[in-house]
Amino acid sequence: MSEEHQPTTPTAIEQVVATLEELAVVFGEPARAVIPVVRARLIEAMAARDRGDRATAIARISEAMHQLAGLADRLDPAEAVLMRALAQSFRSAMTCGDQASAEQAAAVMFEQSGARPRKRS
Fold it and tell me: CB atoms < 10 A from the CB of 99, how many?
């Protein structure tokens, strides 16, 4: 079966989870406590997505982004403000069913996180 109709956001979440260790290396010691929490929230989001629980998936993604924003607060307050705004934009768009705005906010969040597009095998 063709995979051309696969949604982009789930792959992006998986990419962020896969690159979290890179963020830990970049952020150093302050990231040691935060990265595992972010990973757990994103895994919970993927599980919720897989069982069709959209509201929980959105909430867990938002929680993960707020955790990263808290980490950024300690390292770069301007980056933290941007991350919080993007997380809120994503959550609002998903809650309202505005797929285009949600995808745009997610794309910027994932770019900021360091996630790189990967082809699915």
Answer: 12
Q: Give the residue ranges of DSSP H helices in 1-121.
A: 8-27, 34-50, 54-75, 77-96, 99-113
pTM (2 d.p.): 0.69
- Residue 32, Cβ neighbours under 10 Å: how many? 10
Virtual CA dihedral for 51, 55, 57, 59, nearest 10 degrees? -150
Q: Which one has a higher pLDDT value, 121 or 67?
A: 67
Burial class of residue 110 in the structure, from the number of CB atoms within 10 Å of its CB (0-12 exposed, 13-18 middle, 19+ buried): buried
Contact yes or no for 89/103 (Cβ under 8 A): no
Instruction: Return the DSSP state at 36.
Output: H
Contact between 11 and 49 (Cβ < 8 Å): no
